[in-house]
Design a protein that fits this description.
single chain, binds adenosine-5'-diphosphate, five-stranded antiparallel beta sheet, rod-shaped, six-stranded mixed beta sheet, alpha+beta
């Protein structure tokens, strides 16, 4: 037993005994004990009231002196108080330091509640996102960042890929990443990438300028080589094969320069400027004629099928992209194989596919095909006369038409390259009657 408790019990027993003795003097010992215990209980209530007042209002000081076990209780409560006070101070200090670190960061940070309301923002959020920490706290972020791309990104809920946005002032460009945390709260981070965009622009212009400048010397070289070929001594095998090799290489360089120019034009000119409804039946017939010409004596079977509404887009760009797919199919399909051109569209989407029965592509290459200069087996591709830029051009054209490229292939069993267009790219109106597969 706690010594203070033992002492308090002794005091209570003594008071009761004294009360009993005094009561016996007057012939009422029970009354004496009752009065003594009553006094003790009253004292206990007074101490309890003082303790309560201290707990409710008087903390942390002054500490009441109640004596005995009461002082022990007060000491323990006070100790707990001090510990939680210190803990609170430590947490507040940590929070202040974290806030100071977040404020010192060059990147913008914005904390959003579950309902996408701004709870806190650091100072760079003003420059990069146009959000003011105090003024905008409590507002919904989509009411302040008005770019529809940001609203769509926030609503989609898939934050694996970052989003590139224009900053509040020109020419600021920012990359935005949303990080969900806690109970559906979000942290929005934004970084200034203006200099990266500027470098990217410089690279694009450099490639375009160099390609453009290379065109004239190549044309001159090509012209002279043709003249040399005509003049070369028919008996001089070495000279003839050297000239043939030079012509072949110059031709390769010309194709490369043309593809580089096409790519940079696609990257630098605004999309949708020349969109029109394309008569897909006529368009595919045109492509099939190109396929026949490319196939020449290899005599592939070329099939065409058209079903569904027409496509809306830039005919020149789409012709270049689709021709690339047709060219690849003919290149990589042995003589006598089949190449099918198909356009199928319904209310949901339109699909242009080039299906061949050629050599096919191993699965590991498929995700990399649209990268610039990516080739499946460099010897095979170089021998086929490709530049390695064809599918990069296709991807860029599709990007400008809100479309995507789907590649299905199995080594030895042929490939299917499908361009999938959203319904917004289809001309609504009476459906055309289907043109069934026909050999050309
Ligand atoms: P290239 O101009 O060299 O053909 P592309 O970007 O058009 O470059 O194609 C990239 C690679 O994809 C090429 O190396 C080629 O081997 C492969 N490829 C493209 N289309 C087909 C196809 N229909 N069948 C088999 N391989 C293909």
């Amino acid at each position: 037993m706690h010594p203070e408790l033992r002492r308090d019990l002794w005091v209570a027993l003594s008071v009761a005994t004294v009360g009993g003795l005094l009561g016996s003097v007057f012939g009422h010992p029970v009354v004496g004990v009752s009065v003594a215990l009553g006094l003790l209980i009253t004292l206990l209530f007074i101490k309890l009231a003082r303790l309560h007042r201290w707990l409710v209002r008087g903390r942390p000081a002054p500490i009441p002196e109640l004596g005995g076990l009461w002082d022990e209780v007060i000491r323990e409560v006070h100790k707990g108080d001090r510990a939680s006070e210190r803990h609170k101070e430590r947490l507040t200090g940590l929070f202040d330091r974290l806030q100071a670190a977040a404020s010192a960061m060059p990147d913008a940070m914005v904390v959003l509640t579950q309902r996408d309301v701004i709870e806190w923002a650091n100072p760079p959020a003003e420059r990069l996102l146009g959000l003011h920490a105090e003024r905008d706290a409590g507002a919904r972020i989509v009411h302040l960042i008005r770019d529809p791309a940001f609203g769509a990104y926030l609503a989609a809920g898939d934050y694996h890929e970052p989003l590139i946005l224009k900053g509040p002032v020109d020419p600021l460009a920012v990359i935005v990443q949303i990080i969900p945390f806690g109970a559906r709260e979000k942290l929005v981070m934004a970084r200034d990438i203006t200099h990266v965009k500027r470098l990217e622009e410089m690279r694009r212009h450099f490639v375009a300028d160099v390609s453009h400048e290379l065109r004239t010397p190549l044309t001159v070289l090509q012209g002279f080589l043709e003249t040399f070929a005509d003049l070369a001594d028919a008996k001089d095998d070495e000279a003839r094969s050297a000239i043939a090799l030079m012509r072949e290489q110059v031709e390769r360089m010309r194709r490369l320069v043309d593809d580089l120019l096409s790519l940079s034009r696609l990257e630098t000119t605004p999309a949708r400027a020349h969109d029109e409804a394309i008569d897909m039946a006529a368009f595919l017939q045109g492509l099939s004629s190109i396929a026949v010409a490319l196939s020449a004596e290899r005599r592939h079977a070329i099939e065409v099928e058209v079903d569904g509404p027409d496509l809306i887009g830039n005919a020149e760009e789409l012709r270049s992209a689709f021709t690339n797919l047709v060219q690849n199919a003919i290149r990589h399909t042995p003589a006598g194989g089949t190449v099918r051109l198909s356009w199928r569209a319904d209310a949901v989407e339109g699909r242009f596919a080039v299906i061949d029965t050629g050599e096919g592509i191993a699965e590991r290459h498929i995700p990399l095909l649209t990268e610039r200069f990516y080739r499946v087996g460099s010897d095979r591709a170089r021998a086929s006369g490709g530049t390695g830029l064809g599918l990069a051009i296709v991807a860029q054209v599709l990007l400008r038409h809100d479309a995507r490229l789907v590649v299905e292939s199995a080594l030895g069993f042929g490939s299917t390259f499908t361009c999938v267009f959203p319904s917004s790219r289809l001309k609504t109106g009476p459906l055309r009657s289907p043109v069934s597969p026909s050999a050309v």
